[in-house]
Amino acid sequence: MKLFAHELRVEQKLFWRNREAAFFTFALPIVFFLIFGSVYGDSTIKEGARRVRGAAYLEAGMIGYGIASTAFAGLAITLVIRRESGILKRVRGTPLPPAVYLSAVLGSTVIVFAIQTVLIIVLGHVLYDVRWPTVPLSVVLLLLLGAAAFAALGLAITTAVRSAEGSSAVVNAVYLPMAIISGTFFSPTSYPHFLRVVADLLPLTYFTKLARDVILHGKEIWADPGAITWVACWGAIGLAVAIARFRWEPREG
Amino acid sequence: MTAIRVEDLRKSYGAHEALRGVSFEIGEGEVFGLLGPNGAGKTTTVEILEGYRRRDGGTVQVLGADPASAGSRWRAQIGIVLQSSSLYPNLTVAEHLSVFGGYYPKPRPVDEVIDLVGLGEKRDVRVKSLSGGQQRRLDLGLALVGDPELIFLDEPTTGFDPAARRAAWSTIRDLRSLGKTILLTTHYLDEAEQLSDRVAVLREGRIVTIGAPAELIGATSETEIRYRRDGELVVLRTSEPTRVLHELTAQALAEGRDLEGLEVRRQTLEELYLALTAAEQEQ
Asked: How far apart are CA A52 and CA A73, in angstroms?
């Protein structure tokens, strides 16, 4: 536990000190919220049969984009760079147990994502008059479910990246289309049929739906077990791939 | 007491046999140098001893445990300098040492380690602003921060300028005088000769010779005599230099000529090494 606390502090220091990465994973979803919020925050958007305010719709979407950005993309790129630069190998050579190390890395990601979510919710309330969430327990569960599933997918994708230089290219190529297709920026109801078919498979679609239910509509998260199952299954697949193929050593010697 | 015992160690990568039955022992407090050309199996050997790689055959004991299954308590007793530097660009020297010191049960004080590796003036400088040699010294510092009994140094001074190498050597001698056991791999023969109590030369996955540097040179017991005769270089190798030299000089005096450019010297470790590893380079 002492080791976990030590490594969690280390991870936080490392995250905030790397300004480029902190901007990319932490600030960008907030910046997009402000940009798109000013574009269509006041218009109404069709969500299935309902009509909702653009700002509220976007707020939940940006929390979905945030999880893809911090837990998936940011984590994956960080770990690939550490692996290829030999830092993971060095850590493996110390008495710090690998499980404690990875838990602290994930714990740190959850902290970053939680701060980001709180900021998005506060900004949404202050700037766009989106109402406060009414089901706090479900918000917490939502964040934990999302962080666990997307971090597992982030660990899994590190196994598909061969070099530090290629890490942001590969990760961006996966997560940016996923964020757009899953409807984090725009309502997918206007998407062509084939994109909606793809969207129906992606974990971020279900996470974003849960985020809308919980944050916009004040539903408890367990009201939609189907969506939870989808997100959890993707997380489990990610975890299985990570356990089977995660490497601590760079490709070259 | 034995710090490391290796018997008949074997390892293959696909069809390539990297280690073909390597055996040696390293005593507690000994500095042991592992020499050999690239691809001879030095790093494979060291990484098996460090617990990074699995062996295919043979037995290995490091500080009384099998590295393939040893846990955190064992790791706390060893320090590792990997072949390439691996640091966080945005952390300072002192921060690195407190980050990694925090992984060990009884870390050495940060400033003590900084002094030991000579980075006092760079204490609060971020790693991305350090030179390659300074980063390498921090690598060494990170291997020492846990106060280990056994230290693995994989080519610790590659890329150093001569002054930095001397400084690193004196650090390694300090560690030796503290009773630490050190396994050193290096390309530099003078480094092995200067620092090691014993060296082993690896070639194509086998140890071709092992012993104290002075013994190894002594064992060949050949002395080389060179001189010029009518402008032609003459090289003689003999195990009886006194007699051969006496005959040569007597003959030259009798004929009334000079032995131009006369040199008498023992084989150096470098020549021995080149002779031992030459076969591979001819292939």
From this structure: 29
CB A121 within 8 A of CB A31: no
Average the pLDDT over B69-91 and give the result.
Answer: 92
E-assigned strands of A6-154?
44-47, 50-53
Structure tokens at B159: 């890329």
Determine, for residues B82 and A10 on separate chains, whether the beta-carbon distance falls below 8 Å.
no
Chain A nearest CA to B51, separation (Å): 8
Using CA coordinates, name the residue in chain A closest to B85: A86
SS3 call for B215: helix
Residue B279 has pLDDT above 70, yes or no: no
Are residues A85 and B86, on separate chains, in Cβ contact within 8 Å? yes
If one counts every other C-beta atom within 10 angstroms of the C-beta of residue B112, the result is 14
> Are A157 and A171 in contact, with CB atoms under 8 Å apart?
yes
φ, ψ for residue B237, nearest 5 deg? -120, 130
Distance in angstroms (rounded) separating the CA atoms of residues B50 and B75: 9
Determine how β-strand B181-186 pairs with β-strand B31-35. Answer: parallel
Q: What mean pLDDT is predicted for residues B149-165?
A: 87
pLDDT value of residue A46:
76
pLDDT band at A238 (very low <50, low <70, confident <90, very high): very high
What part of B 69-98 touches A (C-beta under 8 Å)? 72-73, 75-76, 78, 80, 82-88, 90-91, 95
Q: Which of B83, B91, B104 sits opposite A95 (nearest CB)?
A: B104
Residue A121: what are its φ and ψ, rounded to 5°?
-65, -45
Angstroms from A166 CA to nearest CA on chain B: 19
Hey, what are B148's tokens?
């280990």
Find chain B residues with C-beta within 8 A of A89's C-beta: 52, 82, 86
pLDDT at B282: 46
CA distance readout (Å), B180 to A28, A136, A149, B3, B218 = 50, 56, 46, 10, 28
Kindly list the residues from chain B whose CB atom is less than 8 angstroms away from the CB atom of residue A7: 102
**Chain A residues whose beta carbon lies within 8 Å of the beta carbon of residue B42:** none
User: Are the beta carbons of A96 and B52 separated by less than 8 Å?
Assistant: no
Amino acid of residue B236: L
Contacts of B88 (CB under 8 A, 6+ apart): A14, A87, B96, B99, B127
CA distance A21 to chain B (A): 12
Give the pLDDT of residue B277.
Answer: 74
pLDDT digits (tens, 9 = 90+) for B91-150: 999 999 999 999 999 999 999 999 988 899 999 999 999 988 889 899 999 999 999 999
ipTM, two decimals: 0.88
Judged by CB atoms closer than 8 Å, whether chains meet at B75 and A94 is answered as yes
